[in-house]
Write a structure and sequence with these properties.
Elements lengths: L2 H4 L32 H21 L12 H24 L8 E5 L2 E5 L3 E3 L5 E3 L1 H22 L4 H24 L7 H11 L9
Antiparallel strand pairs: 1-2, 3-4
Helix pairs in contact: 2-3, 2-4, 3-4, 3-5, 3-6
């Protein structure tokens, strides 16, 4: 049974006080005969339905660490922004890895340094992607899922692209600011701190 079928019209007869037995219109508390067709009622119903869709979509993802009193669509956009920033951060870490199996020397602003490879031996000696590569792929999948949920909740593709672009630019700005301050944005302690902030305090072992 749908939501529309489950809710009776709340209107009551002024003479008898008996409640209307018609079903309320979708997203409303009254039927078409009791004001449900008015422009303001239809706009309010559309807004309530949008919020309901966004709430269901937000319940499907667990990318926000706290429960704040925000509009569900705004919360989904924030989730997209956080995931896009995480993707940009992880992409920068992957870009700093050596393209050779197991590792090698790469050119960096600090000179020629040794870096682990994008793929290296696991505990069995078989080839496995570096943890930065694995996390980057996982975060990209999460971003795609969250963006799809936001679109189903009514967020436009243009708004999603703008949100992701702003998040990526923010990461670039922060990395540039760190370099101007003489801090290596790829230093181990910096990487751990940035990831901890982006993931609401969760720090992982990347060795």
């Amino acid at each position: 049974m749908s939501v529309r079928q489950a809710i009776r019209c709340k209107a009551r007869s002024k003479r008898s006080g008996v409640q209307c037995q018609a079903f309320a219109m979708n997203g409303q508390q009254v039927c078409s005969a009791h004001g449900g067709m008015s422009p303001q009622a239809r706009k309010a119903a559309a807004r309530r339905l949008e919020e309901a869709r966004a709430s269901r979509a937000l319940a499907s993802v667990q990318v926000l660490g706290d429960r704040r009193d925000v509009h569900p669509v705004a919360a989904l956009l924030e989730a997209v922004s956080v995931s896009a920033a995480m993707c940009a951060f992880l992409e920068a870490q992957v870009a700093g890895l050596a393209p050779r199996f197991g590792g090698g020397h790469v050119e960096t602003p600090e000179g020629d340094v040794w870096r682990p490879g994008m793929v290296g031996p696991d505990h069995l000696g078989d080839g496995a992607p570096h943890v930065w590569v694995r996390l980057w792929n996982e975060e990209r999948d999460r971003l795609a899922r969250t963006a799809a949920l936001a679109q189903r909740a009514g967020v436009s593709a243009a708004q999603l692209e703008l949100t992701q672009d702003l998040a990526r630019r923010l990461v670039d700005v922060l990395r540039g600011a760190l370099r101007r301050l003489g801090v290596d944005p790829d230093a181990e302690d910096v990487r751990r701190a940035v990831r901890a902030e982006l993931s609401t305090g969760e720090v992982i072992d990347v060795d």
